[in-house]
Amino acid sequence: MTSPPAKRCRRNRDNTFSRPPTIGDPDLFSKLPDDCLLEIFAYLEHPDLDAVSCVSQRLRPLSIRIRPKVRSGTVDKIRITRVGGNCSIKDNTSKIITRIQCRKHFQEHETKYSLSMFFSPQWITTKTFSHEEGLHADCEYCNGLQQQFDNDPSIAVLHPLFDSIPKAFNFETVEFDEVILGDLLIALCKKYFDVPCKRRVFSNPEIDPTMDRGGIRRYNYYSRIHEWMAVGCSEELEVLSDDLAPLEPTGIVRSVNGTLSSLRIISTQTPKQFDSYARSLPGSLSNCARIANLELDFLEISGAYSFSYILERYRLHLPGSWRFLADAAPVITGIFSPLGLIISKRNDCALELCLNGHKEITVKISPLDIDPSVFSVEATFH
Amino acid sequence: MVLITLVSSDEQNFPVERELLKQSGTIETLIVNMNLDDEDTDAAAMPIPLPNVKGDVLEKVIQWMEHHKGDPVKEGDNEDNNAEIVVPQWDDDFFKPAMYGSKHLELTVAASYLDIKNLLTLSCKAISNTFKGKTGPQIREEWGVPNEFTPEEEEAIRKENEWSE
């Protein structure tokens, strides 16, 4: 008489044998074969899988294993747009709230997610950012993702909540149809940054450079700027961060060592390099620039809480540029260079204008008493 | 009508219509290997033992197969959209008396063992439906699963899952 193969007994460490689960045992659920449990869990959504993960040690890894994984492959089109309602981030729990919103967003099977990294559309040859539903099936679990765009120059988006870049996607088109702001932390990948182009890097999703920098809002929210974002840039680099304190400008500067013509770092908080400068510790930006042997056409560093340090301590003089600082609101600091006029305003609010732009600007510059090399600026815009 | 006898682990015999058994990949393979489909073979004299399935469970499986006689048999991996699978009313009523009990799970294991894809799908879907909207402790209580986690571990898991709540 032939029978289907029966399950073998398993030898334990103490050389005893344990019988395979037999149907009818108590707590059969925990002894169900993995295949059966995975089949059951396959019908559950993420919140229910979270609940399952709390049931037992046995079910926990299975509930994690069954979650949908990002599949590599080719997607015709990616669409990435702003996630609505993500600006109400609270102080200490901002990250959690953001993730919750993000998670809910995906639970509702909407077709959008947001980028924290923003690139000026004119730097992208295609028209709009876009995102296709299903591409980030488990993006909310942030197991790392790189989306590679078949773009010229090639760009990719990765999920910087995690440093790893395990998966790649190829896209035939990339569309940028609106400013990318939001709570998912996504950066454009190395491939894009490897092209020697003008570059602007944002670390905080709430900074919207397209709003004339008048709408910078500050939250206790940290998105990492990676050094590789600056690698290969041989023209202008702009780094904007809501909070530069956790940022390593030294790393950024070193990554562009000898190649950069212009560096602009803007923050609403004090970069720790300024703090260290104030404490006469190594690692200040001046030291940083010296170490990196930078020969910039212009350099701007501004932050709402860093101006006192700039006024009192900062004495970098760079060929080809002027620096003027003022202590009178609203204009606090700025750069006047052959490339244009850049002024920044105090209190989480900055404004950038270019002399060769379309706006008509009247600028009055006068030296300050405290330092003749420091100027106050009044600007009228028409 | 060709009858093939299945023998459960507790030595109960179940004569089953040959046609019904096409739903079970495991039994179908055995029938082929044992040449039970040959005209020269006396199928009735060659019972198929199923040592991993008890008699009462096998009876339920046969009952299910009889109801689903003629249904198309799935082949290969399940590529259906899981979210779209709905448990038909008959099957829901079929599973319900055993729900939250070992019988339903035994049926699921038997479906897996016998490779009856449709039964496995519906059974698992029915079980998964009982999980929806429940917390871990609720699932534990309903299915009689002992709590193995220390309070510290529970807290760690809760924090890990916090952002999805």
From TrEMBL, chain A:
CDD domains linked? F-box_SF (cd09917)
Gene3D superfamilies (UniProt xref): 1.20.1280.50
Q: Pfam families per the record?
A: F-box
Q: What is this protein called?
A: F-box domain-containing protein
* Source species: Pristionchus pacificus
Q: What is the lineage of its organism?
A: Eukaryota, Metazoa, Ecdysozoa, Nematoda, Chromadorea
Gene responsible for this protein = WBGene00093862
From TrEMBL, chain B:
Give, as in the UniProt entry, the pathway in which the protein acts. Protein modification; protein ubiquitination
* Gene Ontology BP, a term: SCF-dependent proteasomal ubiquitin-dependent protein catabolic process
- Gene3D superfamilies (UniProt xref): Potassium Channel Kv1.1, Chain A (3.30.710.10)
List the residue ranges of the region (Disordered). Answer: 145-165
For bias kind Basic and acidic residues, which ranges apply? 156-165
Reading the lineage from the top rank, the first entry is Eukaryota
Q: Which UniProt keywords apply?
A: Ubl conjugation pathway
**Which Pfam families does the protein's record reference?**
Skp1, Skp1_POZ
The family database entries (InterPro entries) matched by this protein are listed as:
SKP1, SKP1-like, SKP1-like_dim_sf, SKP1/BTB/POZ_sf, Skp1_comp_dimer, Skp1_comp_POZ
The answer to keyword Acetylation applying to this record is no
- Protein task: Probable essential component of SCF (SKP1-CUL1-F-box protein) E3 ubiquitin-protein ligase complexes, which mediate the ubiquitination and subsequent proteasomal degradation of target proteins. Regulates cell proliferation during embryonic and larval development.
Return the protein name.
Answer: Skp1-related protein
